[in-house]
Amino acid sequence: MTAFVRDQWYVAAYSREVGRELLGRTILGEPIVFYRTGDGEAVGLADRCVHRRFPLSESRLDGDTIVCGYHGFTYDSGGSCVFVPGQQRIPRTARVAAYPVVEQDSFVWVWIGDRAKADPALIPRAPWLADPNYTTVSGMEPLNARYMLLVDNLMDLSHETYLHGGYIGTPEVAETPIQTEVDEDSGIVYVSRHMDDAACPPFYAKSTGIEGRITRWQDIEYHPPCLYLLHSRIAPQGVYPPAEGPDDQAFHVEVVYAITPSTENTTYDFWAVARDFALDDEEVSRFLHSNNHTVVMQDVTALNLLEQVLVKEADGYQELSINIDTGGLAARRILKRMAERSRPEGAVTS
Amino acid sequence: MLTGPRVYRVDWVLGTDRLRGFCFCGTSYDAEDPIELWAWLLAHPDSHGGTGPTEPEPADPPSGTVRDRQPVPA
């Protein structure tokens, strides 16, 4: 099983999920409670009262402080304890960890690892999600599977033909050769599948209004460990970007996934679909949300099943990789390398 | 398309089951097994190359890409 990659930013929630209600999430095995202060600042604190480990996410907010629901230990937004019951002296160790939190591109990102290395400039971008020139539908599904299974799934889209037939899959996806690139320095993996003449799956036929066959490009850009971008270009067959000027004869969909490990065998599957057409068409938004949710749930069902199988397998189980796995293999290698580099000194791995 | 100085590229050779890997040092290798191909690429400079990055050759676009595009009728 691939170890967690620490010293990284992870998507913990959508900004819309973090408000004046306490939100508990477990990221890389670390329970964290999120809320928003009266001034609008998103806060992430360790989700265990220092006293008897009661979950602060099951407690209550009082102004910008959290009052533990068990004995009343009270913490400010920096994690310092400002009140303990029945006595004046607050023990020096009475504090919970405060996590670095950044809101960007509609996500709440949290840093897991050495706080001194938490540079917001390292957060990869998904600008379409907060761009008024795009309309976005999005959601999050908890996955009862290790995060690597979702990485494998997303890096090889040939599965669309079989798992998502009738939604986003057509025969050409599995039949079209891919080109894979890896930037060894940045760790980015790029997988391109350009279908010159393909059937238009219902997902795009109904949302774009295109009738007939299409030229369909899928360009994956994976920023390990958390952010996955799929640049999807759909146009009537034979219509290519002009040499100059905007590519305005095509429809563009930016599919964004944030792959956030929760525990060794569970993952948060954040998904978003941003489009540059039919911006104000509520019916298209409803259709794309419903359809993409169905597709995500097809993946969730398959990966949950796969996790149940793998967890019973002995270590070193046999796999077979073929051409379609070229990008997934590259992603696995980079994640393994990142995990090794981020392991705390002296840590023992199994 | 990635443009950094150390980019590995693997093309699925059109009409075949072969993969062709290009190292950033300019050498290439064909294989029918992606694991074998990655092993060769990542063994730079032991299995090939030996010098630092060179100017990468222009990449062929993914299949389905048309380079000489005709104007698109509105």
UniProtKB/TrEMBL annotation, chain A:
The keyword Metal-binding applies. The keyword Iron applies. InterPro entries: Cholesterol_7-desaturase, Rieske_2Fe-2S, Rieske_2Fe-2S_sf, VanA_C_cat. Residues 9-110 form the Rieske domain. Pfam families: Rieske, VanA_C. GO terms for molecular function: monooxygenase activity. Keywords: 2Fe-2S, Iron, Iron-sulfur, Metal-binding, Monooxygenase, Oxidoreductase. PROSITE patterns: RIESKE. This is Vanillate monooxygenase. It comes from Plantactinospora endophytica.
